[in-house]
Amino acid sequence: MKIQDILVAIVVAFIWGFNFVVIELGLDSFPPLLFSALRFVFSAFPAILFIQKGSVSLRWIVSIGLVLGVVMFSLLFVGMKIGMPAGLSSLVLQIQSVFTLILSSFLLRDTPTAFQKLGISIAFGGIFILVFDSIGEGRSSLAGLCIVIAAGLAWAVSNILMKKAGKINMFHLVIQMSLIPPLPLFFLSSFFEDGQIETIANISLTGVFAIFYTSIVSTVLAFGFWGKLLSRYSPNVVAPFSLLVPVFGMLSSWVVLGESFNNWEWIASLCIFAGLLVIVAPPRMC
């Protein structure tokens, strides 16, 4: 990769890592489902006006929009709202890579290599450590942890849908599928949450920043840059940079939010990160 493209990939990883801190801040201003709905409203508009119609099949827009936009982000936001720290969330959510491999082996007949199976085992070992630490220490919500893991599973399902969709423009897909989640999310918010009108009427500058960052910066700009990188290089070259997301997520949560990690959380984090590193390692290194 060219130096400037490496820098772009690092910047995108930082944007996505810092996004977890912004979500944490946004959840202080909005109920989680309402926050997620507003995020997708501003992800879709006005960017949708500049996207060519018909560039992605409607069935993939709808299915991925429901699974990724409604299910995955609802679970992530709710899990963080009820006690899952931003830094750990940025790492645990990457379990989607493990779930994607497992689902691919069953649904796409894409059998993991022995090295990838080792990575799956190491990553799940880290998850189990976090679960038992949550039970024993109570530092992070066990329910929140389980919900964020479920969000990773939903992300993996959307990855399978993307694979089945074939070669599609990722940036166009993200913008077009952002049209799907708002209505279901607003409905769910009206059913499970309250005070939506008052929340929007009394929105703070932090709330405005959270919506702007999660919708425009983290979604429109970051996916736009990521899509360009994928158009220039093999996914095997670009994908490993996503490992920087939890690194930036944990560092930024420590700097901005003052989050700290106990010894077991550090051990679990290293296991998960090591497992992910083994999974995305190029075949020639295995």
Describe it.
It contains 14 helices and no strands. It starts with a helix and ends in a 6-residue tail after the last helix. The radius of gyration is 18 Å and the shape is globular. It has 286 residues and is an all-alpha fold. Helix 3 packs antiparallel against helix 7 (142-165), helix 4 packs antiparallel against helix 13 (244-257) and helix 6 (114-137) runs antiparallel to helix 14 (263-280). It has helices at residues 3-26, 32-44, 58-81, 86-92, 96-107, 114-137, 142-165, 170-177, 182-192, 196-201, 205-232, 235-238, 244-257, 263-280.
Q: Termini distance? A: 22 Å
Morphology call? globular
Give Rg in angstroms.
18 Å
Strand share of the residues? under 5%
- Could you give a short account of the major beta sheet? none
Total DSSP E strands = 0
Mean pLDDT, nearest integer?
Answer: 85
Output the helix-strand order: HHHHHHHHHHHHHH
Which spans have pLDDT < 50 for at least 5 consecutive residues? none
Computed structural class: mainly alpha
> What is the share of helical residues?
over 70%
Number of H- or I-type helical stretches: 14
Q: Tags for this entry?
A:
single chain, 286 residues, mainly alpha
SSE topology:
Layout: H1 3-26, H2 32-44, H3 58-81, H4 86-92, H5 96-107, H6 114-137, H7 142-165, H8 170-177, H9 182-192, H10 196-201, H11 205-232, H12 235-238, H13 244-257, H14 263-280
Helix pairs in contact: 1-4, 1-11, 1-13, 2-3, 2-9, 2-11, 3-7, 3-8, 4-13, 5-7, 6-14, 8-11
Structure described in brief:
This protein has 286 residues and is mainly alpha-helical.
